[in-house]
Amino acid sequence: MQWHKYLRNEGHYPSSTEEEGSRGGLRSTLNRWFEKLPGGIRFKLAFLTLSLIALITTGSSLVAIRILDEALLHSLVQRGSSLAVGAATPAGYSILSGDILALDNLAAKLTEAQEDVIYLAILDQEQTVLAHNRLEAAGGRFESLSGREVTETPDFSVQKVKRDGRSTFEFLAPIRFAGRRLGEVVVGIDSAPYRAAKASARNRMTLISLLAMGVGLGGTLLLVTRFTQPIKRLATGVARIRGGDYDVQVETISRDELGELTTSFNAMARTIGAQKESLEGSARELEEAYISTVHILAAALDARDNYTLNHSARVAALSLRVGRRLGLEQNELRDLEIACFLHDIGKIRVPDIVLNKPGPLDAEEARLIRLHPEHGAEIIGLAQSLHKYVPVVLHHHEWHDGSGYPKGLRGEEIPLFARIVAIADAYDAMTSSRPYRPGRSLEEAIEEIRAYRGKQFAPRVADQFIEALKEETEEELSFMGGTL
Ligand SMILES: [Fe+2]
Predict the structure, then answer these.
(1) Residue ranges of the alpha helices (H) in 386-434?
(2) Is the dihedral of CA 400, 406, 408, 411 positive or negative?
(3) Which residues fall within 8 angstroms of residue 206, CB to CB, at 6 or more apart?
(4) Taking residues 228-242, what's their average pLDDT?
(5) What does the mean pLDDT of the chain come to?
(6) Which residues, listed in sequence order, are joined to residue 129 by a DSSP beta bridge?
(7) How much distance in Å is there from the Cα of 421 to the middle of ligand 1?
(8) How far is the CA of 396 from the centre of ligand 1 (A)?
(9) How much is the pLDDT for 306?
(10) Which residue has the higher pLDDT, 482 or 6?
């Protein structure tokens, strides 16, 4: 088996891998060239197909014109040479017998039926005209002209000359007898009919080529439209899916590969739609579970403090009223509600003894309590999904005039949600009873809020909060009146 190896190593033939590599290289070059073409796939396909049609049609047309030219010339040479060679034999007999009349008769007869034959002359060895179809030319000397040689055989030669101002194919056939040259027959055929026939053939071929290109253009446009329309419809379908419309169904027109592709696309769109609905259902369930968890966490936190039971829920209810009055969107209200339930989460780190102290706090205890926004932000910051609530948790004890904690932010620096939660939180604290002081009334609390409007509380939020309180009171009164 060693010789196989030697043959391969000699490299006389390219290996199959080399051939594939060469084909692959050509294919990738063509692909790159195709990709670089400007315009869409419709333009590219039309451009390529039309270029091929134009190339093939022009090439075929040029070849056909050349063949027609050669055929016309061949036919002319055949006719002219037959005339000249055919006249040479009888002319030889007549010259030998000295029968000039027969020569005149021969020249006249041979030319009378041939419209494009301008002249037929029978010459002797000294180029003297023995006979001519124009009788008056007899006896004169026949002037030899040099022109472009068309063909030459032992029996005749053809050249293109300009005689008497006319372009002429001149055929010369020698007159021989017993190996002796007696003279020659000269036949002149007008080249104008040949040129006209050639031009006519070229015109017809050009017309046929243009017609073929026109048909090719129409066919190409039809085919390209036929193939690109389903692709465009599919692209539109993909764009609609990308825009969130999963009910899209693309019309299937053909039963070919494009039809199969369209059917598969429609099935894929249905599957994506179903999966999206399923995912949305799961997301809703997850969200509900998540909100429930936050509620439970807040309730557990509130329960630690004997005096703040349901504090978070009350803060949430008041904050949502304010949020609605400020024109917040539904998803913003949802985030505000969750933020309310989480705002005091940092109190988890405050010892029970401090949190539940029945009397006023000393300085150290107050310091521990004041750390709860930062503790809360730290705890919330542990979960990526809760990061958006960090600003509310961290800043819900900031004051509008900058004297709050932990950062001393002021005015618009304090996030809006934190400003809302701050006032609802303060209101609930004011109205809740403590062992060392009774809770304030609604009117007293409103007075307090008005007193601290622009100091502790943001003015616009404080105004809306007071309006929300009035709204709530009216609703409660209305409800009680209804039940009574
Ligand atoms: Fe707090």
Answers:
(1) 390-395, 416-431
(2) negative
(3) 61
(4) 86
(5) 86
(6) 123
(7) 9
(8) 7
(9) 62
(10) 482
Query: Is the domain covering 305-483 a CATH 3.40.50.300 domain?
Result: no
Phi, psi of 162 (to 5 degrees): -115, 100
Give the distance (Å) from ligand 1 centre to CA of residue 115: 122
Q: Using the mean position of ligand 1's atoms as its centre, give its distance from the Cα of residue 280 in Å.
A: 35
- Ligand 1 centroid–CA 388 distance in Å is 17
pTM strictly above 0.70: no
> Which DSSP letter does residue 400 get?
T
Interval between CA 372 and ligand 1 midpoint (Å): 7
- Calculate how far, in angstroms, residue 462's C-alpha sits from the geometric centre of ligand 1: 18
What are the pLDDT digits (tens) for 149-159?
A: 988 888 899 99
From ligand 1's centre to the CA of 240, what distance in Å?
Answer: 47
Homologous superfamily (CATH) for 63-200: PAS domain (3.30.450.20)
Q: DSSP state, 246?
A: T
Tell how far the Cα of 482 is from the centroid of ligand 1, in angstroms. Answer: 36
CA of 322 to the centre of ligand 1 (A): 18
Q: For residue 330, how far is its CA from the centre of ligand 1 (angstroms)?
A: 25
| Alpha carbon of 459 to ligand 1 centroid (Å) | 20
pLDDT at 309: 66
Location of structure tokens 């692709």? 231
Query: Given a cut of 50, is residue 245 above it in pLDDT?
Result: yes
Q: What does the domain layout of the chain look like in residue ranges?
A: 63-200, 217-275, 305-483
Measure 373 CA to ligand 1 centroid, in angstroms. 7
Q: Residues 346-367: pLDDT tens digits?
A: 998 888 888 888 778 899 999 9
Above 90 in pLDDT, residue 437?
Answer: no
What is the CA(414)–ligand 1 centre distance, in A? 15
- In this predicted structure, the answer to whether residue 18 has a pLDDT above a threshold of 60 is no
| DSSP-assigned beta bridge partners for residue 437 | 434
Instruction: Give the pair of three-digit tokens for residue 114.
Output: 């041939």
pLDDT confidence of residue 155: 87
**CB of 186 closer than 8 Å to CB of 142:** yes
299 CA from centroid of ligand 1 (Å)? 15
CB 129 within 8 A of CB 123: yes
